[in-house]
Amino acid sequence: MKIIHCADIHLDSPMNTTLNNNLAVQRRHELLITFIRMNEYALENHVEMILIAGDLFDTEFVTENTRQQVMAVMEHNRDIQYVYIEGNHDEGAFIRSMVNKPGNLHCLMNGQSFDYRDITVLAQDSPGHIELESERINIVMLHGEVDIKAFAGKNIDYLAMGHIHSYGSRAIDARGIACYSGCLEGRGFDETGKKGFVLLDADAGLRVTHRFIPFASRQIIDCRVKAENCSNTAQVRERIEEALKKIDAGKKDIVRVRLTGRVLADFSFSRGFLEKSFEGQYFSFSVEDKELKPLPCDSLYYGDTSLRGTFIKNVMESDEAEEDKQKIIELGIAVLSGEEPE
Fold it and tell me: pTM for this structure?
């Protein structure tokens, strides 16, 4: 019997932390579309049960369109059993929004269970309250971070967990395995890497196997690029191109480049130009320079009688705070280089 384990889908998430309003709206739609696609995958691959281990929605408030779409999917797939537990984000949202609950939707509160064929699904986050029959295939669902070792010796075949947004698995004991499915789609730069769900295969021989299925429509990429020895925007752009080529960033991806390293005080580049030049190559592209560290510049320009050298010398000998001196120098050098300060 095939089972899907998913979690942390966060439907109706604002998505505006890293994206502009237009792209955020598109990504909100994509979260819902990916959830619908997962259900189509389940139907095509003869999946009989979908475990949703919390945070199906981002908050307790659910838009009418999202509620209708989710209900329509479940009502359409009558041969699939949906087992749902609440997470810390969507507490009560799904249940309160329902008028007529589909017969194939099973909303479990902590301590409640659902039996289907040879399988028992129990919602329980406290191992001390778990009592399961050894001859059945036992799945425990929870949302949160727990001590996996505490669930050993409880006749658990699979611990379906939510809350952590990256896939991960480890053994409970000789019998069982614990998994975080991760989220279906990454939403921010703290959710990089492949995202998707876990596909289980449970048989009557009390054996549950699993594999992670990458399924996200876009990948979120947070790329660090060293800017040492660069002296202008063109050189920085070349470094960025090389780095993104190495990691095979694609047109659909959401990309952030973080420039790193120690640079001279007269290092100046146009972040706006870089972002515009890569704009059409990715779904979203941004550049950050917060990790750039300036090299000491007071000794570099003594004896330099140019306007730039005189400017830096005067700033370094001023009574300004050290952190303010660096900011003044960076702005001044940008102006003297003919680039617009940012």
Answer: 0.83
